[in-house]
Amino acid sequence: MGTSVQVKPLCGVYNENPLSYLVSVDGFNFLMDCGWNDHFDTALLEPLSRVASTVDAVLLSHPDTLHLGALPYAMRHLGLSAPVFATEPVYRLGLLTMYDHYLSQKQVSDFDIFTLDDIDNAFQNITRLTYSQNYYISGKGEGIVIAPHAAGHHLGGAIWKITKDGEDVIYAVDFNHRKERLLNGTVLESFVRPAVLITDAYNALLSNQPQRRKRDQQFFDTILRTLRVGGRILIPVDSAGRVLELILLLEQLWTQLNLSYPIFFLTYVSSSTIDYAKSFIEWMSDSIAKSFEDSRENAFLLKNVTLLVNKSDLDKAPDGPKIVLASMGSLEVGFSHDIFVDWAADAKNLILFTERAQFATLARMLQSDPPPKAVKVTVSKRIPLVGEELAAYEEEQERKRREEALKTILVKEEEKELVVAVDVDGDAMVIDAKIKPSSNVSSSQPGAFREVLCDGFVPAASAAGPMFPFYVNSAEWDDYGEIIDPDDYMMKDEEIDRTSGPFEGELNGKLDDIAANLMLDTAPSKVVSTEQTVFVKCALVSMDFEGRSDGNSIKKILSHVSPLKLVLVHGSAEATEHLKQHCLKNVCPYVYAPQIDESIDVTSDLCAYKVQLSEKLMTNVLFKKLRDYEIAWIDAEVGKMENGTLSLLPLSTPPPPPPHKTVLVGDLRMADFKQYLSGKGVQVEFVNGVLHCGEHITLRKVGDSGHKGGGRIQQIVLEGPLSEEYYQIREHLYSQFYSL
Q1: CA distances in angstroms from 93 to 77, 89, 99, 104, 242, listed in the order given
Q2: Rounded to 10 degrees, what is the CA torsion of 250, 254, 255, 260?
Q3: What are phi and psi of 543, to 5 degrees?
Q4: Which of 199, 192, 123 is nearest to 160 (CA)?
Q5: Are 96 and 138 in contact (CB under 8 A)?
Q6: Which 3-state string (H, E, C) describes 184-209?
Q7: Other CB atoms closer than 10 Å to residue 406's CB: what's the count?
């Protein structure tokens, strides 16, 4: 049998809940994503809590809460302690996302599900990988290789490839094949015939996405129409994900049209988000990278977008038309919630949704058709304690301090009672030793025996003379000197806490000042909440800026990849069943859509063997150079070596093997071949996928329709009358390949 693979969904199947799946490869358990929603509902994590302690590695694909929101809670409360892997942008932007969520929740409630320390502890040990970087698992997962590849949805977003014994398990959720301003498209289509593909059905029912140019034009027309009548526009966004694409879009429009309407980006971590975005140029689209190389101009040196981290700064801005991109996208908490309450009653204003909101949120309710005319919301605000409440709070704190002080005194008294009185046969010398030196304490340390008391100096009969207790420090030496213990020179945890701030380290001081002040603010306060009915008179518009492939594109990509076995997750029940039936007919015969806690076995039916190349065989092999590799054709038979391992040996039969058919190795790109022929003086023209060479010769690629899934095997057809020109073109064509 092939590599053993089991898949067990923990959350996010047959619905739009957060993503979390357990994938076992030969007994090594991967947790693919660790998502949560904006409600932070612990009931969603019950399946994860049952298996968290068995997880061997966590792979994160995107920097939003749906993919990593539960990581701090799981590591603090569920026993998750496995190493975590992600790309650098997912790590950085994911950390900022969790900070923004925590601060937003803390301002409107006594949020204690997880703390800032939990966030820091969860993220500080993440192993960061670059695209296509192979990481070799050791220990229990020996032989397993993991690598992230571009997903095209978020900055740094990844599809994961897990390889064992030559078989690939691909985890690809929330990918986008389209090239955008910020990102290139996914590389999922470059994988062909993996053993297992795990993907989502989120957009399976969404078809015929508008062209990017038409969508952008509709976006421009909508916002300009509102601004020109004096309206204000709220765009609810995530903290550090898809909002970056919108910022680039608005920057481009404002620069091209020379507009002066103010644009604000309002989150608790807005400045840090843009600072990190400036440093991730190599993760962005080719056009951004090329522009930076040519002009050294960073795309995120924003000229038209103002960064804010406090709503009071927005309130100070001049009244009038403006655009505000504010978190959270769900409108449940955060600045977007407060701005919606303030602006919804004005018919001139616009709430512009750029993606499908999370299920059971205020934003999802407003996206329904028809939208509600009035909604009930909870308006919460944290205010400082004053008067009697402040006095009661201080009295309670003082009581707690007194209790702590009393406990400290009692502990010291108990230590004093442990003083041992040593009475030696009525001798006058009495030694009371409260503190006995430990073996790792040098006698030269000042104060080491400061509490050793000696009463009387009358020597015992057997004593040579009175003396204080003396301990010999027997140091070990080697050829290089005294052997030291590095732990003696390590700073203790409490010393580190005193010398460093709570937010130093990975963020390197980049956290926004106001956000940091909120984190450090220990002034006594309370949350005041009121129920309020908001009459929705403003315009509500939804546009698709999710950055996900639509249903038609998903089906084409799956047909091209043509996995041996396919597992569908994350999508409504209707979308999941629709895509499942399509794939059964057009992609592969093994399509699974498991339920929560249902473990399915998707082990490959292939058999993999490891063989060695014998020295006798290799002495007669002629290699040909193919880029960074050397290739050769061999005729051999499988045999066993003396140690029992399988090996490829020369053919034992005396007659030489029959000559094999010539194999052409390589991939022909029509555009490159057209340029090559032009350089050789051949007149070429590319029309409707056909390359016209000279006057009568045509060259085209055709797929093998007999291949299940299509698109993998292609033939190159050269047509035309037999002539000198025909043979000349054929020779040029052969030169593009390596022949074996």
Answers
A1: 23, 6, 10, 16, 11
A2: -140
A3: -135, 155
A4: 199
A5: no
A6: CCCCHHHCCCCCEEEEECCCCCCCCC
A7: 10
Burial 508-545 (b: 16+ CB within 10 A, else e): eebbbebbbebbeeeeebeeeeeeeebebebbbbbbbb
Nearest to 244 by CA among 285, 211, 209, 210: 285
Q: What φ, ψ does residue 291 adopt, rounded to 5°?
A: -60, -40
Identify the pLDDT of residue 113: 94
User: Which of 393, 337, 338, 398 lies closest to 525, judged by CA?
Assistant: 393
Query: pLDDT (tens digit, 9 = 90+) per residue, 367-376?
Result: 987 888 899 9
The letter for the amino acid at 252 is Q
**pLDDT tens figures, 679-732:** 888 888 888 778 888 888 898 887 543 333 333 456 888 899 988 889 998 888
If you search the block for the tokens 């032009």, which residue do you land on? 678
Q: Edge-to-edge, what's the strand order for the sheet holding 135-136?
A: 135-136, 144-150, 158-164, 167-172, 196-200, 565-569, 591-592
CA–CA separation, 386 vs 447, rounded Å?
Answer: 48
**Which pair of structure tokens corresponds to residue 297?**
């101009």
Instruction: Quick: pLDDT tens for 433-491.
Output: 444 444 444 444 444 444 444 555 555 555 555 566 666 666 788 888 888 877 777 76
Residue type at 96 in one-letter notation: L
**Residue with the two structure tokens 């080697």:** 478
Confidence at residue 703, expressed as pLDDT on a 0 to 100 scale: 59
Torsion 89-90-91-97 (CA) sign = positive
